[in-house]
Amino acid sequence: MNHEYDDDEDEMRMEDVDMADDDETESFGAPGVFKPSSALKYRVDKLKTEDIVSTLDINCNYFGFLSMSLGSLKSEYCDSKTQNDIFFVENSGKMECYRFVVAFEVDGLKKVLAEPIRSTEERFLSLRTGVEELADTDLHYGLTVLKMMDSYEGITCGRLTGERSIIAASSIHSIACYTYSDDSIIALAINGIAVHN
Prior knowledge:
Radius of gyration: 22 Å
Mean pLDDT: 81
Number of strands: 10
Structural class: alpha+beta
CATH class of the domain at 37-119 and 157-189: Mainly Beta
Strand content: 35-45%
Helix content: 10-25%
CATH architecture of the domain at 37-119 and 157-189: Roll
Number of helices: 3
CATH topology of the domain at 37-119 and 157-189: SH3 type barrels
């Protein structure tokens, strides 16, 4: 099969090659070419007492909004009714869940002050109770759903701890959506987590 290319196609191909070689190019999204970036917005003038920890520089600029390539986090400092403040971090091969408090920059590195969400002893207790009341095929499917939820790293059922941790923004693995159930939070990673059947 013979393919003939005109000069315009050659110029476009050369332009693509030039863009791929250009260190400033971020539009390809291929490893080694795409450079993830993040932005800090909405400066926080004063931290609440519970958000001040001894390892923080009180004179640092703090921000209530962190935009990253995987999504954005907005703290209660920006919006008291925010639903964009929960995220997951991968730590030693295990997913951990946090609530975003503020972001800041130290020596050119973006960091996050966050509140850990600890898993409760018995996850999804009301769902488990409901499944136990099922019979036959419904019980089978209910147990399968519970098994999948237990094995999926991107879901947690836990409580806010009141503690504060400082985390490198680059370690954020996924943004989460969440809902409240009694005194617990059920958080689900909505990006960045592989889904397995």
